[in-house]
Amino acid sequence: MIELGKIQTLEVIRKTQIGLYLNTKNESGKDDILLPLSQVPQDINIGDEIKVFVYKDSEDRMVSTVRTPKLTLGELAVLKVVEVATIGVFLDWGLEKDLFLPFREQLGTVVKGNSYLIALYIDVSNRLCATMNIYNMLSYDSPYKENERVHGTIYSISKELGAFVAVENKYQGLIPNKELYGNYAEGDKIEVRIKKVRQDGKLELSLRQEAYNEIDGDAQKIVDRLKLSGGKLLINDSSSPDQIKLELNMSKAAFKRAVGRLLKEGAIKITDTGIDMMWS
After folding, report:
1. What is the pLDDT of residue 212?
2. Does residue 33 form part of some domain?
3. What is the domain range of residue 26?
4. Residue 70 lies in a domain
């Protein structure tokens, strides 16, 4: 049986002026599909086998191509948006006909020219479509250990939970809100640290290095902000985590560690209203 959305080996059933008609071995009839003449290899004959990808053309007919698409059923791939239309979005997946991403399958704001992590599915009309809802396609069986650094793609952002990440575009990961610093959007590629491997296999991620490696960077960030603010910051240990995150884009725990380092070095002093820089 010919399978839509997959690369498969089919048999040449007959030759015509417009191309070859193919089917699975020892089958032929109304389900034969076309391989257009422009893609027919030289010296191929009836009965020969050829590896093709099967999809539907602009007239909704099953056709084949010898081109390898960037995405097939069961896979994930990062695809670029080539058009945002009134009916949905179109993606470049390496074939003449762009891949359709319906509005209901989008997460966040999809922007022309940006790239997003995409899966392929067959809709109720038996057509190939794209989706950004890939949560159930990601594995929980990763090979990683705590504090390893890995790459991933943000595929969804939840105000309540944080940023969902496809680690190496294969494994399920989450950057909790407490670890999410900076402005990120769906489709962003990031480098993260494995903070924790949960019992269910999900990966808890952090954008930060281990705490002892972060102190110098955070301390410098505070010093730089003090210089820009005339030597004073209106935050201290009594400030809320939200105030600290808004001012310095770091957690309260990281702030306290960095402040402790700067106090020890005599670079700052704590006041009732905030922090003062000790100018040298």
Report:
1. 45
2. yes
3. 7-65
4. no
